[in-house]
């Protein structure tokens, strides 16, 4: 039975805050919507885009959530390609810890509210795709905190829930782990605060990427 470590992407592996927050502000402005605070945007990161729009615009119809989602995607692509925005940086220690976990015999995966295209771009930009045996995105699953991404990752990796841990920066990641159910490790460098992570079920909250191997070992050996 393989021991599986699943990572979220945005806010956990890569620091995408500037890109995501800026694109959301641009999208709301173009749609003539009220100005959001950065904190309001950070609060919904981790959800699939349509569900994020639904959370930000609870009184709007589903069709408008979908329209806003497509506008966000177009703006994100424009910023990334037309404005030649560079890649979002990996957090310090990411490469070393991925290599260390692989060397210790863990199999790794990703479960993200991002799209397949978005995740593949990140993996290619940083040449880290070879570390992961299973990749789950919002394109093929319900939004977090539904556990579908974790369940599929477990099946693809040949693991089991009690041999799996989910690592992420949002309460949605921790609730998804709890719903699976599997272990959950929060990280404090992303979008949600430590108290939100522990309140959602995190067994541990890492303050550095280098804390992760010890926390993983404590949960699944």
From TrEMBL:
A Pfam family (short name) is HAD_2
Traced from the root, the source organism's taxonomic lineage reads:
Bacteria, Pseudomonadati, Pseudomonadota, Alphaproteobacteria, Kordiimonadales
Cite the GO molecular-function annotations of the record: phosphoglycolate phosphatase activity
Origin organism is Kordiimonas lacus
Superkingdom of origin:
Bacteria
GO biological process annotation, one example: DNA repair
Q: Which NCBIfam families match?
A: HAD-SF-IA-v1 (TIGR01549)
* Signal sequence coordinates: none
The protein in question is named Phosphoglycolate phosphatase
Coiled-coil stretches: none
What does UniProt give as GO cellular component? cytosol
